[in-house]
Amino acid sequence: MRHMAHTHKDLQALATDIKNWGVELGFNQIGITDTDLSAAGAEHQAWIAKGFHGAMDYMAKHGDKRSHPADLVPGTVRVISARMDYQPPATRDSLEVMQDGEQAFISRYALGRDYHKVMRNRLQKLSARIADHIGEFGYRVFTDSAPVMEVALAEKAGLGWRGKHTLLLNRDAGSWFFLGEIYIDLPLPIDTPTTNHCGSCKACIDVCPTQAIVAPYEVDARRCISYLTIELKDSIPESLRSLIGNRVYGCDDCQLTCPWNRFSHITQEEDFHVRNGLDNITLAELFSWTEANFKQKLAGSAIYRIGYEQWLRNLAVGLGNAPSTPAVLAALNSRIDDASTLVKEHVEWALNQHNIAQ
Fold it and tell me: 4Fe-4S ferredoxin-type domain location, by residue (predicted)?
């Protein structure tokens, strides 16, 4: 360690300070845990062995680094886990949007600024504040990046429990929040994990449009709409396209149905507020965007990461599932000869859906 030795009392006080500083910086809760992820690591390996990660090769890489934080960042003895609410205010009701087949449904977390940037910046500020207080120390920040078992760490740090849909749930905040971590080389006192409060409820399992939650606490990503619209770069399996509906970026069904989200909070973070009216916009309008429009409007958005071609692929599927209105058919016909074979294939499928329906 490069920092000065600290007494137990000093470390206790520092842990309290870190939690207070975290709230000042806009986090909704901070927890601290050790690095023992042996149980979660075994579960992860069993999940990989079933092939449930699909084309997400990065999930299978890195060997033990995912479940051994000190292998990823040498010297790590503790993990600071942070959560930040993201549910934006004044959005069109999600269920209303999904029931209106001409609208595009975009996962609530992606309506504003890219959370990676917001969270990483805030975690760096928290780390800098710790350094200002104690001097230089070893750390590295993460948010949905690198081989980090975010939910398992957050659960161990007392921020909530892993729900049957595999997302973290909190009794006072539901699940509409982002997670981020700081791996540190300070032996801070650790927090107590909470207990699981899913009980016999299986609302998330029942509501999943593609039945991707194959068992409680187990998701087959290959069927998950978030995976299909974001992670999968190739053609979406035809058998799943009609089940996607108008969900063109991510899927919130399991969160929308969860009883614990009655206790969720609207975010105080302006970066997560809706941009470009994405909570209430038609598939046809989005499909009419040029690549320049896409890059200009979605710069700084999580959606930007999937790229224009994949975005059009997703919209084509949404349009294939939409009512056969003149606007929908005109939108699809406008890209019948698209330069992208991926887009063209999905447009042809979509038009075929309407030909069958008429």
Answer: 186-218
